[in-house]
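The data are quoted verbatim here:
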Amino acid sequence: MKHTAGPWIAKAMSRNGYLESARVIFDAAGNEICRIDYEAMPTGSEGIKKSDENGALLAAAPELLDALKELAPLLDGAKFDGYRQHVSCIIAKAEGK
């Protein structure tokens, strides 16, 4: 599985140009990758805050995956065995394995 190349950017978007209604994740070329509608979250400012936080996490995903791939080979040896296994599982999950 190959994901859309990063960097990704999270932006608040509005409907009808009035109120923010979603957090949208775009790739570097400006193509929409995904959308988190505020309506799908709890109502009020807490729901908007969670959407914003989820959007920030999603936008960071490609860079986080790249960092884990760079880190994994450095975790050799018994001292880091548990970390290596955990990092490998996260990479596999991100790659849809």
